[in-house]
Predict the structure.
Amino acid sequence: MPLAEILLAAMWICLTAYALFGGADFGGGFWDLLAGRAKAGRPQRNLIEHSIGPIWEANHVWLIFVIVLAWTGMPSVFAAISSTLYIPLTLAALGIIARGSAFAFRKVSTELWQQRLFGATFAASSVLTPFFLGTVAGALASDRVPPGIAAGHPIWSWVNPTSMVSGLFAVGTTAYLAAVYLTQDAKRVGDPALVEAFRSRALVAGGVMGVLAVAELIVLSIDAPQLFRELTAGRALPFTIVSAAAGVASLVLMWRRSFLAVRLSAALAVTALLWGWGIGQYPEILPGATVDEVAATESVLSANLIAIVVAGILVIPSLWWLYAMFQRDQRPAETVPDK
Amino acid sequence: MLETALDVQPIDLMAARLQMALSLGWHIIIACYGVGMPAITVLAEWRGHRTGDPNYALLARRWAKAMGVLFAVGAVSGTILSFEMGLLWPGMMGVYGEVLGLPFTLEGIAFFIEAIFLGIYLYAWDRLSPRVHLLTAIPVLVAGVASAFFVVAANAWMQQPTGFDVADGRVISVDPVAAMFNPATPAQTVHMILAAFMVAGFGMASVYAVSLLRGRRDRYHMLGFLIPFAVAAVVTPVQIGVGDWAAHFVADNQAVKLAAMEGIFETQRGAPLHIGGVVIDGEMRYAVEIPYGLSLLAHFDPNAEIIGLNEVPEDQRPPVNLVHLAFQVMVGAGFALLALSVWLAIVWKRQKALPRSAWFLRAASVSGVLAVLALEAGWIVTEVGRQPWIVYGVMRTSEAVNPAPGLVYGFVLVAVVYAILTVATVYVLRRLARDIPVPVAPQEADVSDYRIT
């Protein structure tokens, strides 16, 4: 496999990781928004805050890797995407700022009005950011970003049927993943009421996702027929099937309270979806521009691939330690302190 | 692949530059704390373990808490910058993205390591033995310095673009390692990393200098002042030497930038050093001149030739007054901080106490602001002094900017968000600083739950 494809795959792995881990953080904000009034929602918010706490800053790096690998591996594509989709990307960027800082501020705030203010900012931007990132994905999927700097329409490139449905789909995905993850977290800290709360949320979100998935396919069939063909009859078909099957299985598993297994199946559904999209679109990155035409020079690709291998060696064990440390060894009493 | 930029409105170009300046100038301050603060905090923690003095432990915990906030804000404000590289400067990234990609990939790794181990350091304080906890800080320190190195190396490439060949507006061969280790990298990266320790050290010390001024002269506040101040004070004289090295580099490689820094228009031998002054109609006025000063400083030779701004057409000159003023501010602030450091060193050697004059503490309590001022001014010299080029001598900033309409509205929106962010950050940090400390209890909760009543 040539270097450009390997780099592209590495980028897509980072995108998947961002969707699975970062996505769950965003989804935490979604449920934070819906947790109700300050007092009633306190246990839920505490659990969300605790689950996101030590991990979320690390999750930004997946996104940074996606961006950096895009401009390193396919500079002209990066330039085309970011110049045409200037508006949704700016809004997503501001959402990331508002979300991250408000989350940190709320953590150290003691007064209720501050917690409310920062909490509302955190929660609202947690919903808006994935929406805008979803519209970007929709713009690419429906071939609305032509090669060249600012060559696409500044508005209609991302305000269109595919982008809108994809935006909602992204928000739904984050909410669904978060509910699934939080159910197991709630079980681990031993709070049956919270388990029930997040289980029912996961079931509702799962159902909504099913509806959204059908809607997405219908819209794609009209708005992005080429990708639709690949997803339903072409190379990407196996991924579509896996994604749909894993999605249905997740609902069943959640219903049967297999909270650990549903984590895996839900993650699989999202992963298969992203890779199905990627495979369905390959080798055309932008309309009329294939990977070979836009790839950076060989020396750049190989130098960055070496760097990525180094990254893997350094980061994966460290990340494993971080997750392991905070996923086990928690006494219920200290996990959700009564504040 | 790339069409050249169409008509970019001057206001949009200015908006893009201001947006980059704002978001980068903002992030750079937080990033300095990200680099310097962990080292200072670990120093306190380590002293606490060695001496058993609870004051050290308490300081380390409180700094860790502030660090958690600053790192979070730094992480997001840094993430935005990678967006903005493409949103604002697609013309540069579309062509040269691959050339300056490697340091950013490596920076990503360093940031990842920093984030992971900072997470462990902050949130697993009581789950780890003191020894292991101290050890988890080492990756944070190394990665913090490394990421500063990589980012500044990428910036240095924009000052001294090397390691690539271009044909027909497309990069055809690249040596990414040569691009990363371009001639500007050594001096610029060292200068920035030392600046980070100064900003963090003086900034943290300032908080305690205010407390000391208000009469809270207990050991806790003394140590809170002395530890970060000592770190910054040790770095300051070294930094002035490194600054001289960086200036020599500019003199040898970016003659126009040096001319702008000093407001030199005519090429001349035995050029004077200008202190103060303002350029009016292509002439430096009201400046104090030190004869032969510039030639001597820039080339160690009183008769060395200094290239003047008149050697290049007007559209290839940076805004002289801004660059000259910024350079003066940086040097002035740097020497003021040196004087403050020397003052404490002399008095401390004699009497093992702070200088008795209240002026020392008054000066120390603004030293953090002064260090930030020097940082921003130095950064203006580097970046504005590079104009009108975005890649020095290769690509103009106006060729790189996003030609999409309405960048100016994006800038306004970003400015509003940053204004709110600034207010919120300062407010939260001030609140954290105002909390009244309590003695360390034996059954401390972890830092996230470490409430101070």
Summary: Chain B touches chain A through 80 residues (CB under 8 Å). Residues 34-433 of chain B form one domain.
